[in-house]
Design goal:
With about 375 residues, this protein is α/β, with parallel strands linked by helices. The protein has twelve helices and 15 strands. The protein folds into two domains: about 180 residues, Rossmann fold (3-Layer(aba) Sandwich), CATH 3.40.50.450; about 150 residues, 3-Layer(aba) Sandwich (Rossmann fold), CATH 3.40.50.460. A seven-stranded mixed β-sheet has the order 3-2-1-6-7-14-15, with helices on both faces. It starts with a strand and ends in a 7-residue tail after the last helix. The structure holds 6-O-phosphono-beta-D-fructofuranose.
C-alpha cells in the first residue's frame, strides 16, 4: 500500500475540505493508495504521540460543503521553527525538518500534499529541497498568489464582504451615516475592490493605491447636502494614506510571525473627524467572518479541481510543483517559481478602471 499525507497549513479558508475530499475520492480510484491527514499542518507529525488521521470515504463524505478543515490548521510551529520553552520562560525555535522527514519515512509516507498559502508553500519548497516528495496546493482568501489566476476561498470572502456592504447600505441610508467596512486581504486589495464594486460603495481604499485624505473627504462631502446623505467606504486592512503607514498590532502569540493587520477603519474615521467631516460615522470590521462558513459553489469546484490534480501529480511524480489555475486549465508550476511572487492589484487594471467608471473613489 502507498500512502499520501495531506496537511492544511496557515489561516483556514473555505474550500479546504473540498480539496481534501477530492484527493481522497481520486485516490480511491487507485487500488494501492491510501490517504492520511496530519493534524494542524505538519505539527501532527512533529508531536509525540503523532497526530494523524486516516482519510477514507467515510471521513470525507459530504465535507465539500463545510468551511474550515477537518484536519485542523495553524500558522504557528512547523518543521523549520518548532517552539521550545526555556526554563526562564523565553522561547527558542528549532529546525526539526530532518527529523520530520525521517518520521514520514517511518510512517510509510510516499508523498505529501501541502495545502497552504505563501508561507506554507515556502516550507514545501524547503522540504522538497531536502528530498521530500511534496506537492503544493495554493489557498488563501486574499487571492495574492501570482502563480494562479484565483485561489479557492477568495470568491466566498468576496461574497461575504459584498453581502456586508448590502446590509450596511440600508442602515446607512436610514441614519444618514458614513459606514466604513474594513475587510481582510493583507497587503492585497482584491477583496475590498470586488466588494466595493459588487456592493456599490462610494469609496474603496486599497494598499496598492495609497490614499489622499482630502480626496476621500471630497468624495464623501459630495454625497452630503445640508447634512443629508449616506455613503459606504470599503477599506482593505492593509490600506494606508499617501504619507502614512499600515496599521497593525504586535502579536504576542508564540511562533506567530505574521503582521496582525487591523484597525484601519477606526483610524480613517478618526482622520476624517480631525479633518472636520461632520457626518455620523461608524466602523464595521468584518474580520474572520470572511473565512468562515460554507464555500460558494465556485470555490467548491475550484478546490475540487485542485484536489484531483494534486493527486494526479503524485501519480505522475511531479514533486516540487504546485497546482495552479491558468484559465481555462489546471496546471502544475514549479514551487520555486510560485512562492514569493505576490499578486497585487495593478492600479491601472481594468477592474480599477471599472470601479472608477462607476464613480468609486480610491482617494487618489
Ligand atoms: O491570509 C488570510 C488572512 O485572513 C488575512 O486576510 C488576514 O490578515 C490574516 O489571514 C489573519 O490571520 P489570523 O487568522 O492569524 O488572524
Amino acid at each position: 500500500m502507498k500512502r499520501v499525507l495531506v496537511a492544511t497549513g496557515g489561516g483556514d479558508c473555505p474550500g479546504l475540505n473540498a480539496v481534501i475530499r477530492a484527493i481522497v475520492k481520486r485516490a480511491q480510484q487507485e487500488p494501492d493508495w491510501e490517504v492520511i491527514g496530519s493534524i494542524e499542518s505538519f505539527n501532527g507529525i512533529l508531536r509525540e504521540p503523532t497526530e494523524i488521521r486516516v482519510l477514507d470515504e467515510r471521513a470525507v463524505a459530504g465535507i465539500h460543503v463545510q468551511g474550515g478543515t477537518i484536519i485542523g490548521s495553524t500558522n504557528k510551529g512547523g518543521p523549520f521553527a518548532w517552539p521550545i520553552k526555556n526554563k526562564d520562560g523565553s522561547w527558542d525555535f528549532v529546525d526539526r525538518s530532518d527529523e520530520m522527514i525521517r518520521k514520514l519515512q517511518y510512517l510509510g509516507v510516499d508523498a505529501v500534499i501541502s495545502i497552504g498559502g505563501d508561507g506554507s508553500q515556502k516550507i514545501s519548497q524547503a522540504l522538497f529541497e531536502k528530498g521530500l516528495n511534496i506537492i503544493g496546493v495554493p489557498k488563501t482568501i486574499d487571492n495574492d498568489l501570482s502563480a494562479t489566476d484565483f485561489t479557492f476561498g477568495f470568491q466566498t470572502a468576496v461574497q461575504i464582504a459584498t453581502e456586508a456592504v448590502d446590509k450596511l447600505v440600508t442602515t446607512a441610508a436610514s441614519h444618514n451615516r458614513v459606514l466604513v467596512l474594513e475587510v481582510m486581504g493583507r497587503f492585497a486589495g482584491w477583496i475590498a475592490l470586488h466588494a466595493a464594486i459588487g456592493g456599490g460603495a462610494e469609496v474603496c481604499l486599497i494598499p496598492e493605491i495609497p490614499y489622499d485624505l482630502n480626496k476621500v473627504l471630497e468624495r464623501l462631502k459630495a454625497r452630503y447636502s445640508k447634512g443629508k446623505g449616506n455613503a459606504i467606504v470599503v477599506i482593505a486592512e492593509g490600506a494606508k494614506p499617501k504619507d502614512g503607514s499600515i496599521v497593525f498590532a504586535e502579536s504576542k502569540e508564540v511562533g506567530y510571525s505574521n503582521l496582525r493587520l487591523g484597525g484601519v477603519a477606526h483610524k480613517l474615521t478618526e482622520e476624517l473627524k480631525m479633518a472636520g467631516f461632520e457626518a455620523d460615522m461608524r466602523e464595521t470590521v468584518l474580520g474572520h467572518l470572511q473565512r468562515g462558513g460554507i464555500p460558494t459553489a465556485y470555490d467548491r469546484i475550484l478546490a475540487t479541481q485542485f484536489g484531483v490534480k494534486a493527486f494526479e501529480m503524485v501519480l505522475e511524480q511531479r514533486f516540487g510543483q504546485m497546482v495552479a489555475y491558468r484559465h481555462p486549465n489546471i496546471v502544475a508550476v514549479p514551487l520555486s517559481e510560485a512562492v514569493g511572487q505576490p499578486n497585487f492589484v495593478d492600479p491601472g487594471c481594468d477592474l480599477v478602471k471599472t470601479a472608477k467608471g462607476i464613480g468609486i473613489s480610491f482617494g487618489d
